[in-house]
Amino acid sequence: MAVDFAAKRRERQGEGWLIRNFKLRLSRKLIFAAGLSAALSCALRPPPALGREESEKDEDYAAIVAEHLLSFANRTPLETVAWLVSEFGATTETIRDIFDSYDAFLGILGDDGKRRRLERLTPETMREDALFDESREISDRFQEGLSKLFFQTDTQLTIAAQRDGVF
Known about the structure:
Elements: H1 2-11, H2 17-44, H3 61-73, H4 77-87, H5 92-110, H6 112-120, H7 130-152, H8 155-166
C-alpha cells in the first residue's frame, strides 16, 4: 500500500496526495487491522472444532480453518474489527476512538466540498488549512484506538499481535 501511495504521488506530481494519505491512514489501515484480527482469531478464538488437542492431526483441520477464515472474509472490515472489540472487551474510549474517527473520515469523504478541498491541498498550503488539521486529528485518533485495541485491551491479544502481527 505504501509503495502504491509513493508511486501515485510521483506520477501525479503531488496532486491529490493528501486525500490518498488520509485514505491510507484510515481505510487501508482498517483493512490491515481486519486481516490481522482474522489471522489472530485462529489462535486466540479458534472455532470449537479446533478445541481438541489432536485437532491439527485431523483430516478436516485445514477445512475447519478455511471455513473459520472464510467467515471473516464474508464480513466488512468494520464488522471484523467490531468482532475483535467485542470479543476482547475493549473500553468505551477505545471503541469511540476507532469507530467515531472512522465515521468522521467517511463524513469528510462523503462531503463533496471537503473532499475536493483535500484533493486540492498541497504541502505548501496544507498547514494553513483547518480541514487538514481535522483530517490529521481523525487519523491520529483512529491510530490511537487501534493501538489501544491490539496492545492494551487483553494480554493474550497483545502477545499474539506482537508475536504474529508485528514480526
